[in-house]
Design goal:
152 residues, 4-stranded antiparallel sheet, Gyrase A, domain 2, globular, alpha+beta
Length: 152
């Protein structure tokens, strides 16, 4: 019997015309018990034109995982994209993109004001690759996104 594989939504999007920065609602998924989960594409860099260095995206992951939960209720997870142009985020409920964008902007302002000693989860005990962080790069990309939104 031949198996057909379902293609992830991200592989069906035109990455050539995609702009950054942008918050794109990928979809709302219905659970078996009536629960809903919204998935978002938090695009920092225009695809195929650049990528966030691994140390920077890793530090942004730690910071956004903390700050987005402060400014947006129901955040389940924020994960870096393998292409290193942004993040995927899952949130409980049917959340509007504008609400996510406002929380992202507030979080990125927090990134700009973060000192190294305040970056969460960067010890060997807390992080699986604790040597691969760059607060400098995280701040540079936070600044680029904020400039793109006219927030600096």
């Amino acid at each position: 019997m031949e198996q057909t594989h379902k293609k992830p939504e991200s592989f069906t999007v035109d990455h050539i015309s995609m702009q950054a920065p942008q918050v794109r609602k990928v979809g709302v998924y219905d659970g078996k018990h009536g629960d809903k989960i919204s998935k978002f594409d938090l695009r920092f860099v225009k695809p195929n034109t650049g990528a966030i260095p691994t140390g920077g995206i890793h530090t942004l992951e730690h910071l956004l995982a903390t700050y987005m939960k402060t400014y947006l209720d129901g955040v389940i997870d924020i994960s870096p994209m393998g292409c290193r142009t942004g993040f995927y985020m899952s949130v409980w409920g049917n959340v509007p993109s504008g609400e996510v964008q406002r929380a992202l902007i507030r979080s990125l302002h927090e990134v700009l004001n973060t000192a190294w000693e305040d970056v969460p989860g960067i010890s060997a005990r807390e992080c699986g690759n604790y040597r691969d962080h760059s607060l400098f790069a995280a701040k540079e990309y936070a600044r680029l996104v904020l400039e793109g939104y006219g927030e600096l």
